[in-house]
Write a sequence for this structure.
């Protein structure tokens, strides 16, 4: 299956919270708040709608193209699937919480009170999408603010919208390039920093930062190993020569 | 035997303190494993790593760096005069790593899965590298320390084997430590957008490595001073004083590099911004680098027992602050919440430190840790200088 993505048009969102309710129902998550607009992400809430100024913004896992969570997990509990969804496997997880520390969007949540805690976040309704359906939240959205489809299509659509209504939209697709691209694309009528988006994110995928350090290890180990052994040999050789000379002279003296 | 037990049981102030901490610690761990992390920690979704990672792990591993530093000095660079303090230093490192593992078992959400790192690989993860380094280096430290135990119980055969592989062990140990110390810094390379720019740097692994060597040296001084007091073992002072000189070199390099890094990345202006971060940064630099460098470069202070000790304490204090700054201070702002460790988190930390101190004490008393055993080192020929050779031959 091809890579999927969300396109979230902030100008269309009315803050009804239908996506919030649909997600709760779809994933059997308990009720955590009466007002969807007041809730926060948690191990029991995968998506929220936040009011920011005059607009409403959906917050959820961005299913990054090069996900930081996937790259940092020591045991590979996170995987980027073929449809683009980033999924978590609790049977592998150690609970080190590096994924939470590293996620540039601060998305993963933890079951802090549990004795078998899991990392929780949006799963892009993996099973539904595999079966050819829309994610529950996208299906529930009454205004078309949350759209879902092939990532290429969504990008095309976003670009088309920006081009057709240059006055209506701020000319940027958030998520197209941020941290190497994500599968949740946003378009907005106002600049993204006004909506509290982190606009300082760099375009390079974050895993590259560690990759550079890690790729030096083999060289470090081999060169280091050779150097250390060499040093040992050198300093030790000096000693041996000293000892030989010493013994030699001692012997000579003995003979005399 | 009876006398031994009697001595162990005789209450002293520190024993009472240790016992109280021990009981509180066990109690806290009990709550941790019956109520989950939420029951004892102030950790939350915005601040997933707290005191246990920042102190117990980052600082614990760093302070164990004396082990590989001294091994390199003695075995690789063949400066044999430091031999008498190698055993206590390796013991500290070994204990340090055991405690780090214990801390991990408490901090991990699913500690029973810790072995997963052995079979489920993700070589792209720094944490994966860290896990392997901890496992391998703890094994190496155990082997390096084992002669002490083997000697005590006179197991000649195994002792011989271990001695035969000393040098390879030392080389592997140094390599693993290098990787491990630096990779703890590399853990944070992935959060360039979250971390305060005063600490974030692509050179973080190097900073961690250098400061670990610095604190490793300081720990050698620190312990020698305390054990000299406690066990009336005086042999090491001149040696230890020399290590003070090395601290000056290492910490000067560290200090220069950190400021160069700020300069090259146009961050110097941040040094004068009025914020908590700036103050803590200066405090860390002052305590951990500037003050000890100034103190230790003066012979008067370096050759004075107390002066040397105090300078070492500065290095250690600054080091601890640095690790806590990296793991807590630098991430507070972007996390959007402030984190301060709970009483329980502090208790567990004290608990671990106490265990370390107690075991070290016991080992020093009942194992041949401080004995000048020549056999531990396979290469036994001291460096004989030409000078000595000459005098030797001239003698009748
Ligand atoms: S948003 Fe965070 S949790 Fe989601 S895929 Fe990206 S890095 Fe992973
Ligand atoms: S908490 Fe679990 S999923 Fe997250 S990085 Fe650690 S082992 Fe991987
Ligand atoms: S994709 Fe599914 S899991 Fe994710 S927010 Fe929408 S409904 Fe929830």
């Amino acid at each position: 299956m091809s890579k999927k993505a969300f396109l979230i048009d902030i100008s269309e969102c009315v803050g009804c919270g239908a996506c919030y309710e649909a997600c709760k129902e779809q994933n059997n998550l308990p009720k955590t708040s009466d007002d969807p607009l007041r809730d926060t992400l948690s191990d029991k809430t995968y998506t929220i709608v936040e009011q920011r100024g005059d607009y409403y913004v959906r917050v959820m896992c961005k299913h990054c193209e090069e996900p930081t969570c996937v790259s940092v997990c020591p045991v590979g509990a996170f995987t980027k699937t073929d449809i683009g969804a980033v999924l978590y496997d609790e049977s592998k997880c150690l609970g080190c919480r590096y994924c939470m520390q590293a996620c540039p969007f601060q998305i993963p949540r933890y079951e802090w009170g549990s004795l078998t805690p899991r990392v929780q976040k949006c799963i892009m309704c993996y099973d539904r999408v595999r079966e050819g359906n829309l994610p529950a939240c996208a299906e529930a959205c009454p205004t078309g603010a949350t759209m879902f489809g092939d990532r290429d299509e969504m990008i095309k659509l976003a670009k088309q919208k920006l081009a057709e209504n240059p006055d209506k939209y701020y000319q940027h697709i958030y998520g197209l390039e941020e941290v190497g691209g994500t599968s949740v694309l946003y378009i907005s009528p106002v600049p993204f920093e006004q909506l509290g988006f982190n606009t300082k994110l760099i375009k390079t995928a974050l895993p590259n930062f560690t990759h550079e350090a890690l790729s030096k290890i083999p060289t470090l180990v081999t060169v280091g190993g050779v150097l250390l052994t060499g040093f040992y040999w050198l300093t030790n050789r000096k000693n041996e020569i000293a000892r030989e000379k010493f013994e030699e002279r001692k012997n000579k003296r003995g003979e005399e | 035997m009876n006398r031994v037990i009697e001595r162990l049981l005789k209450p002293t102030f520190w024993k009472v303190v240790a016992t109280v901490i021990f009981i509180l610690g066990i109690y806290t761990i009990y709550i941790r494993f019956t109520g989950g992390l939420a029951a004892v920690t102030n950790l939350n979704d915005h601040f997933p790593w707290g005191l246990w990672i920042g102190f117990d792990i980052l600082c614990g591993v760093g302070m164990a760096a004396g082990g590989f530093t001294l091994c390199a000095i003695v075995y690789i660079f063949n400066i044999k005069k430091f031999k008498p303090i190698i055993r206590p230093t390796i013991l500290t490192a070994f204990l340090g790593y055991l405690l780090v593992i214990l801390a991990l078992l408490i901090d991990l959400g699913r500690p029973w899965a810790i072995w997963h790192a052995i079979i489920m690989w993700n070589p792209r993860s720094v944490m994966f590298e860290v896990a392997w380094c901890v496992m391998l280096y703890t094994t190496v430290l155990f082997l390096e320390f084992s002669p002490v135990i083997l000697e005590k119980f006179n197991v000649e055969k195994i002792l011989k084997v271990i001695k035969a592989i000393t040098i390879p062990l030392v080389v592997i140990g140094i390599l693993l430590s290098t990787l491990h110390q630096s990779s703890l810094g590399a853990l944070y390379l992935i959060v360039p957008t979250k971390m305060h720019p005063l600490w974030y740097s692509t050179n973080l692994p190097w900073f961690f490595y250098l400061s670990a060597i610095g604190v490793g040296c300081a720990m050698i001084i620190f312990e020698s001073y305390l054990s000299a007091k406690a066990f009336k073992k005086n042999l090491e002072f001149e040696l230890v004083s020399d290590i003070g000189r090395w601290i000056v070199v290492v910490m000067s390099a560290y200090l220069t590099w950190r400021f160069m890094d700020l300069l090259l990345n146009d961050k110097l202006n941040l040094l004068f911004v009025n914020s908590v971060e700036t103050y803590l940064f200066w405090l860390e630099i002052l305590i951990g680098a500037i003050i000890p460098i100034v103190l230790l470069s003066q012979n008067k202070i370096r050759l004075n027992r107390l002066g040397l000790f105090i300078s070492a304490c500065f290095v250690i204090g600054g080091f601890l602050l640095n690790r806590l700054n990296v793991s807590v201070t630098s991430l507070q702002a972007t996390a959007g919440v402030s984190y301060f460790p709970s009483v329980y988190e502090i208790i567990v930390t004290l608990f671990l430190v106490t265990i370390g101190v107690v075991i070290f004490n016991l080992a020093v008393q009942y194992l041949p840790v401080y004995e000048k055993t020549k056999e531990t080192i396979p290469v036994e020929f001291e460096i004989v200088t030409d000078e000595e050779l000459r005098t030797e031959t001239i003698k009748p």
Q: What stands out?
A: Residues A 61-64, 67-69, 86, 103, 105, 107-108, 121 surround iron/sulfur cluster (ligand 1) (CB under 6 Å).
